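Page 47, continued from p. 46.
Same chain as before, 64 aa.
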Amino acid sequence: QMDITKWKSVAVRADDYKLLKGMCKEKFRAPGGMISKLVDDYIKFRAKKEGITAEAYKKKLNGK
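Result:
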């Protein structure tokens, strides 16, 4: 059984899913791994823009 504290499902528009699959094929990644990479890259981008560390930005997003 899947551990619901570690995994979540999301709905993605069909057009976006097709683009995601294309990006995954290009980079040899699974969709879940590609989404994780996109989130990580965006966190680093926003943290840099705000002049804080990525860890500090993650804490800000998590409300900690």
